[in-house]
Structure formats: C-alpha cells, structure tokens
Write a structure and sequence with these properties.
mainly alpha
C-alpha cells in the first residue's frame, strides 16, 4: 500500500524552505513544556532587553564603556556599542515572542558566551567583575530553546501552522 507524501518527503528549497527549517516545531509539543519554554524565553529576554534599554538611555557613555569597562577585543568601541545594543534589544524581542526562536536563542547564547569567556577575561573584565556564574545558567536556557524550539506559544508555531 502506498503511503501519502507529506512535507518531510519533499526537498525544501528557497526562502520558504529556509523558513520552514527555522520555525519547524521542535521537541517541545505539550502544554507544560510550551509554558516552560515561554517562561524561559521571557526570563532571558527581559535580562537582555533591559540591558539594551539601559545602553540606549546612557548612549553618551557607551564608547567609554566599551573602551574602559568591558571592551570586546575583536570590535572597536564605535562598532561594539551599537551592535551590542541592537542585538540585545532585537534578539530579546524576537526571543520573547518566539520569532525565529532557535536563531534568536543561539544569538543570545553567543552574546553570553562572548561576555563570559572573552570580555570577562580581559584585564578590564576581571577588574570590573564582568564574569558571573549566572551566565552559564543563561547559556543553558538559551541552548534549551535553540535545540527544542520556542514551543507552541510562539510566532514560529503560528508561521509553521500557516505554511504547513
């Protein structure tokens, strides 16, 4: 007996295929896991969003901050300040709403890795106590969503249900 073809039997190409791969439902499919994923997303997002807003509200001091307090070794301060601020706010908002949840989770994971393993190890980072063991917890939470997806209560799920 022949079985019916479904979306997994076709090769996804182009923009629609890329979008399907980025927002496909993950391992998080039941209600409890989706609530946990939402809680993780909101918890992590508010940390980064608040940090980005503080940067915006104190913009005049950002070049000083990225030069003397927490320099990013591979970015000049004039680029690090806007890049970091945009990333903190943009990725946090995407993560909170579950839009490209895996990708935004990986972005926040990479930011936290850079903070903990690169910036915190600079002389200024050590002196200003930039490193913090809570960063490892944040990385774990970002990794959970990056691997499992943002759950049912997400824009990704709405997109997936519409294009499927």
């Amino acid at each position: 007996m022949a079985r019916a073809l479904d979306h997994r039997d076709t090769v996804d190409t182009g923009l629609a295929g890329m979008l399907r791969r980025l927002v496909r439902p993950g391992l998080i499919d039941n209600e409890i896991e989706s609530i946990v994923a939402l809680g993780i997303r909101l918890y992590i997002a508010q940390i980064f969003y608040r940090s980005g807003i503080v940067r915006v509200n104190s913009w005049d001091s950002q070049e000083f901050m990225f030069t003397d307090i927490h320099p990013v070794p591979f970015l000049p301060p004039s680029l690090a300040a806007p890049f970091t601020t945009f990333s903190e706010i943009g990725l946090a908002m995407a993560f909170a709403f579950g839009f490209l949840g895996r990708l935004s989770g990986m972005g926040l994971l990479v930011m936290t890795l850079v903070i903990q393993l690169i910036v915190a190890q600079t002389p200024q980072g050590v002196e200003n106590h930039i490193g913090n063991s809570v960063h490892y917890f944040w990385m774990l939470l970002c990794l959970v969503v990056a691997i499992n997806g943002p759950g049912r209560m997400s824009i990704d799920r709405m997109i997936w249900d519409r294009i499927r």
